[in-house]
Amino acid sequence: MIPSELNKVIEIYKETTTINAVGTPTETYQFFKQTYAKMFVRTGGSEYAAEGTLPFTRVEFTIRYDPGVNYKCKIKYNGQYYEISHIEHIGRKHFLKIQSVVWEGELENG
Fold first, then answer.
1. Which of 87, 107, 105 is nearest to 97 (CA)?
2. In whole angstroms, how far apart are CA 72 and each of 7, 17, 26, 43, 87?
3. Range of lowest pLDDT (34-48, 57-71, 84-98)
4. Which one, of 9, 24, 27, lies nearest residue 107 by Cα?
5. Phi-psi bin for 91: left (phi > 0), alpha (psi -120 to 50), beta?
6. Contact 47, 80 (CB under 8 A)
7. Fold of 3-103
8. Strands (DSSP E) found in the chain
9. Which of 6, 12, 97, 109 is the most exposed place for a label (fewest CB within 10 A)?
10. Of the candidates 97, 41, 39, which has an alpha carbon nearest to the alpha carbon of residue 66?
């Protein structure tokens, strides 16, 4: 991995559990960090489901290693959110290769 290939700025949001006014735990997302990444669109297309035809886009991000990045995180790039589906360690914890899919939900920032 050539560090100069990390030329896209992404934001990572981490899922946290908070207690609302009536004492119910709710899942919210907090800003975790902004970092540089290499972005590569792996594939895209349509999947057939009971709801009809659903479009999808799979994207691969490569970032410098950070132990705080896990499957409960979401990535934001260029106004679009991505859900993490797989994380691979590259080298001796030098980089993370993150497989993700476009996520159409809204983040509730706590």
1. 87
2. 24, 11, 14, 22, 11
3. 34-48
4. 27
5. left
6. no
7. Thrombin, subunit H (2.40.10)
8. 8-19, 25-49, 52-64, 73-77, 80-90, 95-103
9. 109
10. 97
Where are the domains positioned within the chain? 3-103
**β-pair partners for 96:** 63, 89
Distance of CA 57 to the CA centre of its chain: 13
- The model carries a pTM of 0.80
- Tokens standing for 84? 């993490």
- DSSP 8-state code for residue 7: -
Q: What is the DSSP secondary structure assignment for residue 109, as one 8-state letter?
A: B
How would you label 41-75 residue by residue, b for 16+ Cβ within 10 Å and e otherwise?
eeeeeeeeeeeeeeeeebbbbbbbeeeebeeebbb
Could you give the C-alpha distances from 56 to 14, 46, 89, 90, 98, in angstroms and in order?
23, 6, 25, 26, 16
- The residue whose two tokens read 């009971």 is 50
C-beta separation of 95 from 65 below 8 A = yes
